[in-house]
Predict the 3D structure of the following.
Amino acid sequence: MAHKPEVYISVDIEASGPIPGEFSMLSLGACVVGLPSKTFYVELKPINDHVIDQALQVSGLQLADLKTKGEEPTQAMARFERWIKHISGESRPVFVAFNATFDWMFTHARNFSLPRNTPTMLLTMPQNRQRFLKKCCCLTVSQSSLLL
């Protein structure tokens, strides 16, 4: 069986704390690895008032601002899903991040940090880990960073 070509999407989220559902995803940024001009960014309305002050210090985001200016999580994630489909085309979209576990939890925890009707993410892990490592590990920080 032939494998689809893969497009690597670097994802970074900021949250009000470490646990999806107990805390809110506050922002979501993504770019295509190797094509940093292909970006996505959204700030989300918090799902509750739970916050760890250190988490907000890392991001510089303010809960009060996001309550009025943030996008509803369901709408934001639907828009993210459309962006993924658009930029990946016929390729298989692959999730990459640092710390991938943390970002993956919030983007894929639709039963915890997002309303139930939020779309399921399309991003998967690489099929060919060696090809992934060759392609991604030689990038400089500026090449793989989000240009926000």
